[in-house]
């Protein structure tokens, strides 16, 4: 998947986007991108209604479904799919799924390209639908996909086919080479591609790319539409999945000339949080528009699906409506953060993107918290990058200055392995029939091992039990199981990271703290220069820590990077009253000890106490003589004040 993603796109298109809509015709018509065995394929009575297209342009003919049943499978492609659905370029299936991993056909890819060019209405016009195509398989197309005739006609007019193409091959899987070539042509860059025909491609399998196609591949790579794989291959003949084509189409859309497809979008600032199922948008001319929210409105915030409650006054938004109700809202710029400096707990709503996290709290309310650039994040007791956090992780977040500065995953979410190749470090020796891989971003994934898996260590085929925790491995997954495992680098000792709890022995000195653990052993821990220290949920300097405070300390590479006071030290203060017997002085002239006589039932007792160096003397110090009545305040066994009573 990664080789298809450009997760850090230089330009994140912030044009109007609509719902992740499955635009299917009223009456249950099959989507234009439906299964090849759908109504439009193996039935004799395949009229336009059944094929998923109609010549009617009445918007009321459309139903909007904004929640795919298989949404969990398309997380990485969600951003792309939403933007394409907004223009009706890419749709889902009649059963409410998107099927992101399904291989896409040539006719589906051609249809999407024509729609991306803004030519959907033309392609569905009576004139184009009546075109007498000259392809060898034109009759087959008209029989199986009557709705597609107009799309093929327009594609032909716009030079999306090669001059040598004699057949449409509608049901043939669209390959990476086919898709790259198609989209370069859709951008109108055929002449530029032909000028690059003699480019030397650096891919290891460049010889598998036809000479006449070299320029198209070179330009597609240059434009950022497509990339190679980690092993420096292009794999021109590899079929494209629906999710992968969505990524390609979205990147192409970024470079399409501006058009009026977004003219009906409403953009502006949210006047207030949603109320009574409505929102009010203040537009750039200061006029206001109130829009009702559809019951299934899809909200896109920080590039993840969000709830209505996440919308905040001042958010800059783009709204798409159908039938007078908002079906899609995208927050293009969040209102100024109002996150209080406190500790938050809940579930991570989605994988982290756009330098913020969305937390679903116990009451199901949501809060979006920006990430500090130097935030400390721990998952499975290991310091990780924000990208290692997984939707569904249960986390505790410490906010300071309106940003998350510390995140700890208290319970990890379960990740399901996709059919791809993973690289990382083996977390533990294999026991049973699965392994746990720690990826480069420190996220973890458990992968079942196929019974017939090939496993190699030191170039020898071995059993899974021969793998060692810490081995760096490559894992190929098929049908959800590891079928090939290779140790690329044997175990190496990793930096020690640890968590300590206990009481602070003394105030911080020499930039170090000493913690007394529950078993009364002590550990001295140096403080990192940029350690985050919290007391009363407020970020403080190390000097604010008090001996006796109960602490939670996180270390990384031997230094404390996070310190939280879990229980503030409360000193024990008692009052002792009696007659002064005597005091002893230190070399500095200050009182070191004080002795008093107290009356008790049946007699008297002498009490000798240590005196704090900063003791306060209240009253006339000249009367502090033997026999004087004094009241002593004793804090943690040391006298902190002496009051002369008489």
UniProtKB/TrEMBL annotation:
InterPro entries: Cell_Envelope_Struct_Comp (IPR051465), SLH_dom (IPR001119)
Keywords tagged on the record: Signal
UniProt keyword ATP-binding present: no
Biased composition (Basic and acidic residues): 36-56
Pfam families recorded: SLH (PF00395)
Region described as Disordered: 31-56
Signal peptide location: 1-34
Protein name: S-layer family protein
Record flagged with keyword Ribonucleoprotein: no
Coiled-coil positions: none
Organism: Paenibacillus methanolicus
Annotated SLH domain residues: 64-127, 135-197, 200-263
């Amino acid at each position: 998947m990664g080789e298809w993603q450009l997760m850090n796109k230089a330009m994140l298109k912030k044009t109007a986007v609509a719902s992740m809509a499955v635009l299917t015709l009223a009456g249950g018509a099959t989507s234009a991108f439906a299964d090849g065995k759908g109504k439009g394929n193996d039935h004799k009575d395949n009229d336009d209604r059944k094929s998923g297209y109609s010549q009617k342009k009445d918007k009321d003919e459309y139903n909007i479904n904004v929640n795919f049943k298989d949404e969990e499978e398309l997380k990485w492609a969600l951003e792309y799919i939403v933007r394409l659905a907004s223009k009706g370029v890419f749709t889902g299936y009649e059963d409410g799924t998107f099927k992101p991993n399904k291989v896409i056909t040539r006719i589906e890819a051609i249809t999407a390209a024509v729609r991306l060019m803004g030519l959907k209405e033309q392609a569905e016009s009576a004139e184009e639908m009546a075109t007498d195509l000259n392809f060898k398989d034109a009759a087959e197309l008209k029989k199986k996909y009557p709705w597609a005739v107009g799309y093929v006609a327009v594609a032909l007019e716009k030079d999306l086919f090669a001059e040598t193409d004699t057949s449409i091959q509608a049901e043939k899987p669209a390959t990476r080479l086919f898709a790259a070539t198609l989209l370069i042509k859709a951008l109108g860059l055929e002449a530029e591609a032909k000028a690059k025909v003699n480019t030397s491609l650096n891919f290891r399998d460049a010889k598998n790319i036809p000479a006449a196609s070299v320029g198209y591949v070179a330009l597609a790579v240059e434009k950022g539409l497509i990339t190679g794989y980690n092993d420096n291959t292009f794999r021109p003949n590899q079929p494209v999945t629906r999710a992968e084509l969505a990524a390609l189409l979205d990147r192409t859309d970024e470079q399409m000339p501006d058009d009026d497809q977004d003219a009906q979008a409403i953009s502006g600032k949210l006047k207030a949080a949603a109320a009574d199922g409505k929102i009010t948008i203040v537009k750039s001319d200061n006029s206001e528009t109130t829009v009702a929210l559809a019951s299934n409105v899809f909200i896109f915030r920080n590039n993840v699906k969000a709830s209505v409650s996440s919308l905040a006054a001042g958010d800059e938004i783009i709204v798409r409506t159908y039938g007078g109700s908002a079906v899609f809202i995208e927050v293009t710029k969040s209102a100024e953060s109002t996150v209080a400096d406190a500790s938050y707990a809940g579930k991570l709503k989605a994988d982290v993107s756009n330098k913020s996290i969305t937390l679903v709290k116990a009451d199901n309310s949501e809060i979006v918290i920006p990430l500090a650039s130097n935030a400390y994040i721990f998952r499975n007791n290991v310091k990780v990058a924000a990208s290692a956090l997984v939707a569904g992780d249960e986390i505790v977040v410490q906010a300071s200055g309106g940003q998350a500065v510390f995140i700890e995953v208290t319970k990890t979410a379960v990740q399901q392995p996709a059919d791809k190749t993973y690289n990382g470090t083996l977390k533990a020796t294999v026991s049973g029939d699965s392994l746990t891989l720690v990826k480069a971003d420190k996220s973890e994934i458990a992968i079942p091992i196929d019974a017939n898996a090939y496993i190699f260590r030191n170039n020898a085929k071995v059993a899974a039990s021969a793998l060692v925790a810490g081995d760096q491995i490559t894992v190929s997954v098929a049908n959800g199981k590891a079928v090939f495992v290779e140790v690329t680098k044997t175990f190496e000792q990793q930096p020690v990271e640890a968590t300590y709890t206990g009481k602070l022995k003394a105030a911080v000195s020499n930039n170090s703290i000493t913690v007394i653990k529950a078993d009364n052993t002590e550990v001295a821990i140096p403080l990192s220069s940029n350690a985050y220290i919290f007391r009363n949920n407020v970020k403080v300097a190390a000097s604010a820590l008090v001996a006796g405070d109960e602490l939670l300390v996180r270390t990384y590479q031997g230094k404390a990077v996070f310190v939280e006071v879990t229980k503030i030290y409360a000193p024990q203060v008692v009052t002792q009253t009696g007659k002064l017997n005597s005091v002893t002085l230190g070399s500095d002239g200050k009182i070191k000890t004080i002795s008093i006589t107290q009356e008790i039932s049946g007699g008297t007792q002498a009490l000798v106490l240590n005196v704090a160096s900063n003791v306060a003397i209240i009253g006339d110090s000249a009367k502090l003589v033997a026999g004087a009545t004094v009241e002593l305040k004793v804090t943690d066994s040391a006298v902190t004040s002496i009051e002369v009573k008489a």
